[in-house]
């Protein structure tokens, strides 16, 4: 008999044609402004940009997605500006609280717009408890893959996507007060080290080796619609929580976790638990009721996906 | 004022403004002031539930021996250790002895 207490402190617009995702507004004497309106699952996102070509890149990245017809929940602006420090020319990405990123090279723009959209979701979508996690769905049951960056959750989501699972997100689990998970199916952001895996999975990347994203270096994107017309997931209940950790050459292994351990670890991976306080904890506990919880040591993508399908789908 | 050292005669009392969630045989406590989450295993959960400010550590240890197969000394050491840890993490107050 040992009493154990595990504790951890948190260390840690302009109007557009509503039926078209991509609209251009020409104003005499001013730079044309593209307005991109995307329905990203439960999030209505808007990007206003005055940089040539970015709207075309977005059209490729989110081909097959619908435009949203309501008000934008998150919006990001991107245009040209100056560095605050050197006064050099920059591409400036701004959100609801002003400037978020300024980058020098055009190939850094789209990844930082994508990143800014995520930050705006963190800032503004407080109806949901937000967890840093990939989310996939099969037969109406959601599987959440919570993990810190670099744990392989995006690659894992891509692997399951290529096998007919439906994609909800590779970054966010958005949980409501009923314990349901909502989709936010942004394009998957693939680091250079996983480009070969995407080729192996048969998932075409948008402009591989073009984009750069800060410390991640070269990245590419996968539009999840390339896996089929039915590849985007809908709101679903949480059936399984799987904490992935990629180890090169490891034999894939799953081991069970208690829901207590799982809830504790999920609390550390929430973007807004501190903001939501007790209500957020209650939402987390509600979602965990009835969920099976595991830790996954992942390795080769095919063997890892085989293990997940065999263990979770039966 | 320096916090009192936990003793068998200490009277630990749970904080009422934290949220306490039972999940299977464990529990999670969320402390909104510190933004901290704590996990209690089944024994720590039992001890927490006894910390009513009326029972001292010795009495809680006695209760523990009636539920778990442990000697009174083991139980007393365990209660004092767990209470001390919970006090350190701001979940309990021990402001007087019996």
- Intertermini distance of chain A: 35 Å
Poorly predicted runs of chain B: none
Q: What is the arithmetic mean of pLDDT of chain A?
A: 89
Estimated share of beta-strand residues of chain B:
15-25%
CATH fold type of chain B? Arc Repressor Mutant, subunit A
**How many β-strand runs of chain B?**
5
Element pattern of chain A in H and E? EEEEHEEEHEEHEEEEHEEEEHHHEH
Characterize this entry briefly:
Chain A is α+β, with helices and mostly antiparallel strands and about 325 residues long. Chain A has 8 helices and 18 strands. Chain B starts with 12 loop residues before the first strand and ends in a 5-residue tail after the last strand.
What is the fold's blueprint, element by element?
The complex is a heterodimer of chains A (314) and B (98).
Chain A: E1 5-8, E2 22-25, E3 33-40, E4 43-49, H1 54-61, E5 74-82, E6 89-95, E7 98-103, H2 109-124, E8 129-138, E9 141-146, H3 153-161, E10 166-169, E11 172-175, E12 180-182, E13 188-191, H4 195-201, E14 206-213, E15 217-222, E16 236-246, E17 253-256, H5 259-268, H6 273-276, H7 278-288, E18 292-298, H8 301-313
Parallel strand pairs in A: 4-5, 9-16, 16-18
Antiparallel strand pairs in A: 2-3, 3-4, 5-6, 6-7, 8-9, 8-10, 8-11, 11-12, 12-16, 13-15, 14-15, 17-18
Helix pairs in contact in A: 3-8, 5-7
Chain B: E1 13-14, E2 19-23, E3 26-31, E4 36-40, H1 42-50, H2 57-67, H3 72-88, E5 92-93
Antiparallel strand pairs in B: 1-5, 2-3, 3-4
């Amino acid at each position: 008999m040992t009493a154990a207490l595990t504790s951890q402190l948190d260390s840690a617009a302009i109007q557009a044609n509503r039926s078209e995702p991509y609209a251009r507004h020409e104003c005499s004497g001013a730079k044309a402004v593209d307005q991109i309106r995307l329905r990203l699952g439960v999030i209505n996102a808007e990007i206003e940009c005055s940089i040539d070509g970015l709207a075309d890149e977005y059209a490729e990245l989110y081909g097959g997605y619908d435009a949203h017809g309501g008000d934008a929940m998150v919006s990001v602006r991107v245009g040209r500006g100056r560095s605050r420090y050197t006064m050099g020319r920059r591409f400036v990405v701004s959100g609801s609280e002003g400037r978020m990123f300024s980058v020098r090279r055009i190939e850094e723009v789209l990844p930082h717009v994508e990143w800014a959209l995520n930050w705006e979701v963190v800032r503004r979508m407080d109806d949901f408890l937000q967890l840093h996690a990939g989310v996939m769905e099969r037969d109406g049951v959601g599987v959440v893959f919570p993990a810190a960056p670099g744990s392989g959750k995006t690659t894992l989501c891509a692997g399951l996507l290529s096998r007919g699972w439906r994609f909800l997100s590779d970054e966010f689990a958005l949980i409501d007060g009923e314990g349901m998970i909502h989709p936010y199916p942004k394009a998957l952001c693939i680091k250079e080290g996983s480009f070969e895996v995407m080729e192996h999975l048969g998932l075409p990347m948008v402009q591989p080796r073009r984009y750069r994203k800060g410390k991640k270096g070269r990245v590419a994107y996968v539009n999840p619609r390339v896996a089929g017309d039915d590849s985007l997931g809908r709101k679903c209940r949480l059936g399984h929580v799987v904490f992935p950790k990629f180890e090169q050459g490891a034999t894939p292994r799953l081991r069970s976790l208690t829901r207590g351990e799982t809830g504790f670890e999920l609390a550390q991976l929430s973007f807004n638990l501190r903001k939501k306080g007790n209500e957020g904890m209650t939402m987390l506990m509600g979602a965990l009721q009835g969920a099976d919880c595991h830790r996954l040591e992942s390795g080769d993508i095919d063997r890892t996906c085989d293990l997940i399908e065999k263990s979770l789908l039966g | 004022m320096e916090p009192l050292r936990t003793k068998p005669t200490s009277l630990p009392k749970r904080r009422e403004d934290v949220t306490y969630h039972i999940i299977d045989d464990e529990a999670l406590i969320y402390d909104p002031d510190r933004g901290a989450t704590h996990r209690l295993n089944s024994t720590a959960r039992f001890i927490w539930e006894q910390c009513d400010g009326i029972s001292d550590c010795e009495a809680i240890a006695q209760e523990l021996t009636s539920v778990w197969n442990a000697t009174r000394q083991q139980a007393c050491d365990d209660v004092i250790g767990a209470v001390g840890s919970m006090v350190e993490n701001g979940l309990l107050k021990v402001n007087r002895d019996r």
